[in-house]
Amino acid sequence: MSDYSQKVTSSFNERMRLIRLRRKKENLRFWDEFRIIPRWLIVLVILLFLLAQGIALLVNLSAPQRGDQIFPPELKYDPVLASLALAGIVTAVSLVLAAFVFLIAYVNRDAKRRGMHVALWTLLALLLSWPFPFLGVIIYFLLREPLPYPCPQCGNSVGARFNFCPNCKCNLHPSCPQCNREIAETDKFCPYCGNDLKTVASSIEVPAQGSV
Ligand SMILES: [Zn+2]
Ligand SMILES: [Zn+2]
């Protein structure tokens, strides 16, 4: 039984290693990634920010007419400076809120792109952020699936967990010819048995199907 669980754990670790390798190759750039956030959401956030600034300014400056004090009280005789201080606070709060909204939107779009469960991950990113800000988003970034990548043989887009290309049947998870365990195409030596893979790279071939 322990032998079986050991086998399951080791094959899980092998798979996780390949997924890490695949994700390391993604090489994502911040502004390219930012572009997957819908344009209308960015416009909406900017409009809400301007609205919040306007309301805060009006409410604050009209405070003396309502018998209230201008915020912050230390600057009540200098309305311009008081307004600037308030605008700074509103901006700081808005930046955190905007970052949160954009990250949730990113999780939503990115999960779709990676073939993950969109509603589940968006909800998780939202809900888990309640006790610990951004916790759900952090968990998403740690667990997300690798992006689909082009098949090395035909260029067709294939999922990171596919074993064979659905278009040309290329073997997407080559194995070591000596110990038969999965290797990454970037490995120079088999990470399990140390077999030199460069010399045999040309001899790893896709078994001809239909010839039997
Ligand atoms: Zn292919
Ligand atoms: Zn090996």
Please tell me what the overall shape is.
elongated
> What can be said about the biggest beta sheet?
2 strands, antiparallel
Q: What string, H for helix and E for strand, traces the elements in order?
A: HHHHHHEEH
Tally of discrete structural domains: 2
> What share of the residues does DSSP label as strand, in percent?
under 5%
Uncertain stretches: 201-212
Task: Map the helices and strands.
Elements: H1 2-24, H2 30-34, H3 39-61, H4 79-113, H5 118-127, H6 135-143, E1 149-150, E2 157-158, H7 197-200
Antiparallel strand pairs: 1-2
Helix pairs in contact: 3-4, 4-5, 5-6
Bound molecules: zinc ion (ZN) (2 copies).
Characterise this structure.
The structure is a single chain. It is elongated and about 85 Å long. The longest helix is centred in the middle third of the chain and has 35 residues, at 79-113. A hairpin with a 6-residue loop joins strand 1 and strand 2. The protein has 212 residues and is an all-alpha fold. It folds into 2 domains: 27-145, no CATH class; 147-212, no CATH class. A two-stranded antiparallel sheet has the order 1-2. 9% of the residues are buried. 51% of the residues lie in helices and 2% in strands. One zinc ion binds at residues 151, 153-154, 156, 165, 167-168, 170. One zinc ion binds next to loops.
